[in-house]
Amino acid sequence: MVDLQGQYHKMQNEIDQAVLQSIRNAAFINGPEVKLFQKKLEDFTGSNYVIPCANGTDALQIALMALNLSFGDEVIVPAFTYVATAEVIALLGLIPVMVDVDARTFNIDPAQIEKAITSKTRAIVPVHLFGQCSDMKPIMQLAEKYKLWVIEDNAQSLGSEYTFKNGVTRKTGAIGHIGCTSFFPTKNLGCYGDGGAITTDNEDLAIKLRMIANHGQKVKYHHSVIGCNSRLDTVQASVLNVKLNYLSEHLEARRKAANSYTEALKDWPFAHIPETNDNVLHTYNQYTLIVKNGYRNELKAFLAEREIPTMIYYPLPLYRQEAFKRYAGNGYFLTNTEDLCQSVLSIPIHTELNEEIQSHIISKILEFNPQ
Ligand SMILES: *Cc1c(COP(=O)(O)O)cnc(C)c1O
């Protein structure tokens, strides 16, 4: 599905040097590399403030902790997402309210958000799934109308963009009140372990987020709020400082590979290719097909026999996960989410997918002909 070794080889000298230097400096906690990365990511995202942290899940948790929410408050999330989005909500004693997604884009459906808003709703967490920005214009309008916070789960979409009707283009993570991203190795900007970051334009929030990520202290050993210990590792920051220089190139490689798949598969009768809205720049962290007529598992097995790896993101709606049973008491059944869980199949896409490998993958897919 990915080729992290191939990607490393192309940057090997720079990365080796950066890592070695950070080890020699021995400033392992909050070293200068972390500060530098913070600055570089602020420039890249166009956000006023970046708060580096330990991983994308922590980023979401810290974001929620900064909003003064109360036990039992409701937070709206898409039902079709990775567990981390809803997990941190439940962990903080808040209620994840799961809503259906747009069957075309896989992203949360703004019309469904409005239906789910109650007097207890405090926040919306749109997830920019697979590299595509959620429809942020109506989401921000709802947030304004109902006085809700918007936390973007940007773990899969760093570098993606959204253009508003007035022509203004913003990077994902810099649209809502807070953005959360992950540097898990397979994300758009991956480090060599775990890492994450929070983005915001709001200075008060930035101060609070930074404090929460650091044991609730602004001044050492003076703790004003309950926080946690969530730091971006200095060695990881040294890797990210190199890799961020290549991010635009890497995103372009993903988009090029996606275009080749789309060109080859757009008329293929057994699957729908992923659709994008016109006003987004999709960065294809995943290239996800919607396989028709119940052939998903058959296609997956067919490709596995031909040594083509595929993944099912995600096989279950959040509300069908055992861990979330207690939140599913009111009989969730979200049609698009249910259908997607039965039909999605992600095929290999990454920064090192050359034409030869990709032609091979495409030719194997096209051989599939169920009777
Ligand atoms: C990866 C991911 C996360 C969590 O990021 P980690 O760094 O693995 O904690 C959260 N949300 C989504 C949608 C993700 O894909």
TrEMBL record:
InterPro entries: DegT/StrS_aminotransferase, PyrdxlP-dep_Trfase, PyrdxlP-dep_Trfase_major, PyrdxlP-dep_Trfase_small
Residues with N6-(pyridoxal phosphate)lysine modification: 187
Keyword Endoplasmic reticulum carried by entry: no
GO biological process: polysaccharide biosynthetic process
Domain of life where this protein originates: Bacteria
Pfam families reported in the protein's UniProt record: DegT_DnrJ_EryC1
Active site (record annotation): 187
Name of the protein this chain belongs to: Pleiotropic regulatory protein
